[in-house]
Design a protein that fits this description.
Strand content: under 5%
Number of strands: 0
Largest sheet: none
Number of helices: 8
Radius of gyration: 17 Å
Low-confidence stretches: none
Length: about 160
């Protein structure tokens, strides 16, 4: 019996989400639903591997944020990348406050990716969301971060 591309992709999402769930009691990571949603947007639909570039923030906000966090840890650690992620995390954390019941017809925001993703992280401030994205990214990269190693060396020597 061969595994189809969709089955492989779903198995990969389940495995990665389970890895985070195992450590979630010791660390503050994103919720299981938010992680699965982000992974769904980060993995190639055909191969189940990471996309070559980050998903578009306007179409898959949570997936874009987590992808860029992972890439930052796997890359050189430039500050521009981290500040843009923090800025966008703040935008997503505050987004749900744009809609007050009865002020905007539900049809206008029902399919809005920002609104959908902001509900998955509701109750988190922008700093909490950023910290949980950071924790989740470190768990997904097995704690390996050349970027953090470079910053540690630059700030503290050796």
């Amino acid at each position: 019996m061969t595994i189809t591309d969709k089955e492989y992709r779903q198995k990969r999402i389940d495995t990665l989400a389970d890895n985070v769930a195992k450590l979630a009691d010791r660390f503050d990571a994103l919720s299981d639903a938010a992680i699965r949603h982000a992974l769904d947007g980060m993995l190639n639909k055909r191969t189940g591997r990471m996309l070559a570039s980050a998903p578009t923030f306007s179409k898959r906000p949570l997936a874009s944020l987590l992808y860029r966090h992972i890439q930052w840890h796997q890359g050189s650690g430039n500050l521009h990348g981290m500040f843009s992620v923090k800025w966008d995390a703040g935008y997503l954390a505050r987004y749900r406050f744009r809609f007050y019941p009865g002020t905007v017809p539900q049809e206008e925001w029902d399919g809005d990716p920002y609104y959908t993703d902001s509900l998955l992280v509701s109750g988190l401030s922008e700093n909490e969301l950023h910290d949980r994205l950071e924790t989740t990214a470190l768990i997904l990269t097995h704690g390996e971060s050349p970027a953090l190693d470079k910053w540690r060396k630059a700030l503290h020597g050796s």
